[in-house]
Design brief:
Length: about 450
């Protein structure tokens, strides 16, 4: 296999959502797994909606996921390439001027539908004489330009969906240049892919219908088309599609809510595949587990509740070395001993702050009146410092023997007194962190 060159080509018109992340990661992992190159290309020719701050946010969000492009390009800086390619198509009579207004085209489509005909453009503009074109331009009309499709079947072997074929003759000749002279994405994307040496185009299945047209344009420009792969899409839990403009499950919001980047990446890639959805520790590991041939043909639902569970599993397996700097930045002490104690009880890393507060105190004393004497006895039985790792078992055994309590009657009052909560990390790990003096104060109601 040749070393692949892939691209991720977002429009900087909003923040990336989890569906965009799926496409970016599919490309990035494919390139890295096969020793290839990953290009980030901003499709920013829509000057009315494209914004530089969105482009900067896209770079930042990809970096959060661990995706570092080998090259960044912007379509807004490549106009000369598009002009030259358009001239090549005109020279071989594959790009022609059309003068119909949107209203006229709409009326044509309605008439065709009324006659039970497909609403395909009738190529009337190709029958205009030079004088007729001159008259239309004298009226102030400016042409839009359509690509002349060959009426043939176009076939390709899709990397995700297998052999595909499409009858290009059943489609309207696509508009490549608007009346104001601006280029449409279909055209600029092809010119860029050819110029940048893109060998594999991996994108969502909503682009399948565009592929036959794009293959014809590649060939008309004298280029070999890249390999195409169309992966299944992610939808929200209500079945609706995701959109940058609505902010649906944006990477920015997920990051701000405290989710781990690898939990987000793992779910974005593995959902809707034959692989088990379990967190990967790195993009390298994730790339080894997923392949385009493992993807389902059906859309996959991205459920935030599933992300919570995956994030919990990610944290529960995370070594202290991976979080120590972040814990320090949050003002959390206790070192590795604290982390190992609380990580099984975290949904988000920020939850660790609440457990550190339970250790540092103060903690509101919680005890039923009938348990106060029992807790005072338990306080008297706390071993002297220093404590070893078995202090909790030694102490509980002594309390059980001295008081005769067992089960819930033994453990519940002690947990409530020490932490103020009925559930949480194992007291075996928490007690040494709380320390003897604080433990005595809490057990005796002086916390």
């Amino acid at each position: 296999m040749i070393s692949p060159t892939v691209r991720f080509a977002p429009s900087p018109t909003g923040y990336l959502h989890i569906g965009n992340a799926r496409t970016a990661l599919m490309n990035y992992l494919y390139a890295r797994r096969n020793g290839g190159r990953f290009i980030l290309r901003f499709d920013d020719t829509d000057t009315g909606r494209s914004r530089r701050d969105y482009a900067d946010a896209i770079v930042e969000d990809l970096a959060w996921l661990g995706v570092e492009p080998d090259l960044v390009v912007r379509q807004s800086e490549r106009g000369d390439l598009y002009d030259a390619a358009a001239q090549r198509l005109r020279a071989v009579d594959r790009l022609y001027a059309c003068y119909e207004t949107p209203e006229e085209l709409d009326r044509k489509r309605k008439r065709q539908l009324a006659r039970h005909l497909p609403p395909v453009y009738d190529r009337a503009a190709r029958r205009l004489t030079a004088d007729e074109r001159a008259d239309l331009e004298a009226e102030g009309r400016r042409p839009h330009w359509r690509f002349l499709l060959e009426e043939r079947e176009v076939a390709w072997d899709d990397l995700c969906r297998g052999p595909q074929h499409f009858a290009a003759g059943s489609l309207s000749d696509p508009v490549l240049i608007r009346g104001d002279g601006s280029y449409l994405y279909t055209f600029t994307s092809i010119v860029d892919d050819a110029d940048l040496g893109v060998t594999h185009v991996i994108r969502g299945e909503d682009h399948v219908a565009n592929t036959a047209v794009q293959i014809e344009i590649f060939e008309a420009l004298g280029h070999k088309p890249p390999a195409f792969g169309h992966h299944n899409l992610l939808t929200a839990t209500g079945g609706e599609g995701l959109s940058k403009r609505t902010g649906s499950l944006s990477l920015r919001s997920l990051r701000e809510e405290g989710y781990e980047a690898m939990a987000v990446a793992s779910l974005a890639v593995l959902i809707g595949s034959s692989e088990a959805v379990v967190p990967a520790n790195s993009l390298e590991e994730l790339g080894e587990r997923i392949g385009l041939d493992k993807l389902s043909r059906s859309p996959a639902t991205f459920d935030p509740a599933e992300l919570k569970g995956l994030n919990h599993r990610q944290l529960a397996e995370m070594p202290y070395s991976a979080v120590s700097a972040r814990l320090d930045a949050m003002g959390i002490g206790g070192g590795e001993r604290f982390w190992l104690a609380v990580r099984p009880n975290l949904e988000l890393l920020a939850d660790a702050e609440a457990w550190w507060a339970r250790i540092e105190g103060p903690v509101e004393a919680v005890a039923d009146p009938e348990d106060r004497q029992f807790l005072a006895e338990a306080a008297d039985l706390l071993p002297r410092a220093p404590w070893d790792g078995d202090v909790y078992e030694t102490w509980i055994a002594a309390v059980k023997e001295a008081t005769g309590r067992k089960g819930k009657g033994l453990f519940r009052p002690i947990r409530l007194a020490l932490t103020g909560l009925e559930q949480g990390p194992e007291l075996k790990a928490m007690l040494p962190l709380i320390g003897r003096e604080k433990a005595i104060r809490r057990l005796t109601g002086r916390a």
